[in-house]
């Protein structure tokens, strides 16, 4: 007998006393179906429909521009243009594509150390504002 389960002795039972698990038993937890609530469905939809990463999209646009420039460069090399003319025309073509797509580098104001003065998108990371106030013992520090 193990944990009160099974026969105390196998004598007279016509078995060897080995206890097996009943595999045909269906527990109550398996019968119970948990349905999703409206809140759960909204959370799943929000996760599935999140906004694309702007960095990845910008990289893909730049990659497509470089691909077009490379194709033009190979075409001009096959036609026998000189290297300096190829470079100048490809640079002009690249500039035209960047202006058309709006991929050009945007100037971000930076401080003395080269760091951006403000980070785009950090407001959503920190939804709560921290209030800093001066109490009476620290008035001399705050009046600088």
TrEMBL record:
<dbReference type="InterPro" id="IPR051372">
    <property type="entry name" value="CWC21"/>
</dbReference>
<protein>
    <recommendedName>
        <fullName>CWF21 domain-containing protein</fullName>
    </recommendedName>
</protein>
<dbReference type="Pfam" id="PF08312">
    <property type="entry name" value="cwf21"/>
</dbReference>
<feature type="domain" description="CWF21">
    <location>
        <begin position="57"/>
        <end position="102"/>
    </location>
</feature>
<keyword id="KW-0507">mRNA processing</keyword>
<dbReference type="GO" id="GO:0006397">
    <property type="term" value="P:mRNA processing"/>
</dbReference>
<comment type="similarity">
    <text>Belongs to the CWC21 family.</text>
</comment>
<dbReference type="GO" id="GO:0008380">
    <property type="term" value="P:RNA splicing"/>
</dbReference>
<keyword id="KW-0508">mRNA splicing</keyword>
<keyword id="KW-0747">Spliceosome</keyword>
<dbReference type="InterPro" id="IPR013170">
    <property type="entry name" value="mRNA_splic_Cwf21_dom"/>
</dbReference>
<dbReference type="GO" id="GO:0005681">
    <property type="term" value="C:spliceosomal complex"/>
</dbReference>
<keyword id="KW-0539">Nucleus</keyword>
């Amino acid at each position: 007998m193990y944990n009160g389960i099974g026969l105390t002795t196998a004598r007279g039972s016509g078995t060897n006393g080995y206890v097996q698990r009943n595999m045909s038993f269906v527990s109550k937890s398996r019968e119970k179906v948990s349905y999703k609530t409206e809140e759960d469905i909204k959370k799943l939809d929000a996760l599935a429909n999140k906004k694309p990463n702007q960095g990845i999209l910008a990289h893909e646009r730049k990659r497509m521009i470089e691909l077009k420039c490379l194709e033009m460069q190979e075409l001009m090399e096959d036609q026998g243009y000189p290297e300096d003319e190829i470079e100048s025309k490809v640079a002009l073509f690249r500039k035209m594509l960047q202006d058309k797509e709006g991929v050009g580098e945007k100037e971000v104001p930076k401080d003395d150390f080269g760091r951006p003065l403000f980070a785009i998108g950090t407001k959503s990371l920190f939804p709560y504002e921290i209030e800093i106030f001066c109490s009476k013992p620290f008035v001399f520090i705050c009046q600088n």
